[in-house]
């Protein structure tokens, strides 16, 4: 593998990994801040229940559409200007993260396409996300959520 290809692959992997803290920040300070007007639709009436409303779109669904549009625009810029070529690799990493997030969050946790078969490794993520819906706070991360110790104590009681 040539040097340029290695750099592209590393940029894609690095972008994928960087998306978890970026997603955490967007979720905590945008969606639970100025974006609450749209994100509220994702939390209303759910509490501990994570099942999606069958077939229903939510105002919150605007967020992944906005993020995907920004990523596509960045990748388009990277494909047109050699000085921005790295945006293609970064966009691939961001897109891979978005796909993983969508599969875990929307398909598995919220069962927006019907109840999926149980996957043991994803059950930990589902339980962490349930805490977020119950208490409206941590964990804000999705693929690598950090559940505070006091929440673990609540889960055990």
Quick structural summary:
The protein contains six helices and no strands. The protein is mainly α and 157 residues long.
Overview of the structural elements:
Helices cover 68% and strands 0% of the residues. It is an all-alpha fold and 157 residues long. Helix 1 packs across helix 4, helix 3 (62-80) packs antiparallel against helix 4 (86-109) and helix 4 (86-109) packs across helix 5 (120-135). The protein is globular and about 50 Å long.
Mind summarizing the main beta sheet?
none
Number of E strands: 0
- Cα radius of gyration in angstroms: 17 Å
Bin the strand percentage: under 5%
Number of helices: 6
Arithmetic mean of pLDDT: 88
Uncertain segments: none
Name the overall outline: globular
Main structural class = mainly alpha
Estimate percent helicity: 55-70%
What's the helix and strand layout?
Layout: H1 3-34, H2 36-43, H3 62-80, H4 86-109, H5 120-135, H6 149-156
Task: Write a concise keyword list for the protein shown above.
mainly alpha; 157 residues; 6 helices
